[in-house]
């Protein structure tokens, strides 16, 4: 595994990992399609390389689960890359779900069913993180229910 010099967080750095060591996110709601946008992404990667590293988390079997970057991995694989730049983050399951959903909702072309499933996954993860399964899962730091937090984020994202 070859390390690059760019430091991110205290424990994070950009490294290159072989494609065969990367695994898709379990129950990933967003489909990777070989369409015209994928061709554009492949052309961009051929010309400029992968500008934004994938975000992955380590698994017990020595592989890495992709949190963000399924399309970049697919495109890189199709044009013959053997390694891709990644940022390795240690995330709990629910943190990984929230991060995966948030990083993918900014994409332009998302079907309503993908979006709905993603919000449902995020809602369930936030409920579990709160540690309670009843009462609408109030976040005691902000005084809001989980579903209100998701709605507020969606509203703010639409303003930007």
Automatic annotation (TrEMBL):
<dbReference type="InterPro" id="IPR036086">
    <property type="entry name" value="ParB/Sulfiredoxin_sf"/>
</dbReference>
<dbReference type="InterPro" id="IPR003115">
    <property type="entry name" value="ParB_N"/>
</dbReference>
<dbReference type="InterPro" id="IPR004437">
    <property type="entry name" value="ParB/RepB/Spo0J"/>
</dbReference>
<feature type="domain" description="ParB-like N-terminal">
    <location>
        <begin position="15"/>
        <end position="105"/>
    </location>
</feature>
<dbReference type="InterPro" id="IPR050336">
    <property type="entry name" value="Chromosome_partition/occlusion"/>
</dbReference>
<comment type="similarity">
    <text>Belongs to the ParB family.</text>
</comment>
<protein>
    <submittedName>
        <fullName>ParB/RepB/Spo0J family partition protein</fullName>
    </submittedName>
</protein>
<dbReference type="Pfam" id="PF02195">
    <property type="entry name" value="ParB_N"/>
</dbReference>
